[in-house]
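Summary for the funding panel

The consortium committed to producing paired sequence-structure records for every protein in the target list. Below we show the first two records in order, beginning with the earlier of the two.
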Amino acid sequence: MSKTVNLIKLSVGTEDVAGLAAWQATRRAQSEDGYPQHVTRMWPKRESEILNGGSIYWVIKGVILARQEIVRLDEYNSADGIRRCAIVCDNPLIRVAATPRRAFQGWRYLTPEDAPIDLPAGREDEEPLPAELSAALAAIGVR
């Protein structure tokens, strides 16, 4: 049985989860069949693990706030002739426990053990804790 792995990605220029959802609702951010997609330069080497139930976790202003299940990886040929990878996601965005994350470039792999938990129903609209408080709680094992 193959393992599952997730991706983690910065949502650059996004102020909150609603802003990410608004961007993904634009035609420019959608695949031909209407799913939200994120085009990236590199193709993940662990494709089979990602497609085995993996999600993309979104970092917004230094905090992981949401995730989306990954539907597939599509080849995307840009105007400059470079082959890229479109990470095609399912809707909707699923809110997760706010978890601080330092900035990085591109995307990274995220194991299921290290992924933040989904927020329970009814808590999706809560404001995240301040990053410092969230980091302190994580340091003592409280998510």
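The next record, for a separate protein in the list, is shown here:
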Amino acid sequence: MELTHVRLLVDDYQACFYFYRDTLGFEVTWGDENSNYADFKFRGVTLGVFERRQMVEALGIVYVKNGSREDRAALIFKVDDVEKMYQEWKDKVTFITEPVEQKDWGIKVAHFRDPDGNLLEIYEQIM
């Protein structure tokens, strides 16, 4: 068995497509803004973004758009410099946290969400 990629199930597909392509700069390897599914490559990792309605219906469940949800997963990205990425992105994304050192973990982190509410973290090693 081989894990090939992570797929996010999203309610607002187009907004998420543009976010991962244009805001974060991920390369689109399959799909477009109208396909309701796209694969993105970023440093050797594939991230799939799929319209949640289609996945739910494929499972035989009636689709209901989520109003709010608890975080069940987070995408974690290692960067060279959290402060630098924070400054570059703060006008493009709404950060939940400012860069902060988590000394027990030996990292500096900052958190934000994609347009569908998925939690993302950037971090750098500080030890």
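Regarding this second record: The radius of gyration is 16 Å. Residues 97 and 111 are 5 Å apart (CA to CA).
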